[in-house]
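Reply to dn_fold:

You asked what the input looked like. This is it:
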Amino acid sequence: MITIDVTGRSPIYEQICHGICAEISRGVYKENDRIPAARALAKELGLNPNTVAKAYGMLERDGIIYSVAGKGCFVAKHDGKADKRMTNDFEQKTRELLSAGVTADTLIGIVREMENELKGGASE
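and this is what came back:
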């Protein structure tokens, strides 16, 4: 299920892209699976259909999904493009932090703490 933070700093179409990519990465959608129609997803999320269409256009341009006229949008061959799209911001921020002198060990520690939090464990 895609969640949208309308008060967040990230544009809504980017949040939709991220949500679809996350679902592909988690295996919710597999190669050639049909994703929700833009209008249906827009209605479900309470958004303008053009916003969802913009997100789908970006995902199609990046080779993550493909469209078939009259049939809808489907997941393209999963060759890591969805994962790469989601990690671009992380990679950029990591470069900035390493350049600023933050150590790799510190960053790895932060990632492990976050992983523990998501798994429901205590972080130490």
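The longest strand covers residues 65-68.
Hope that clears it up.
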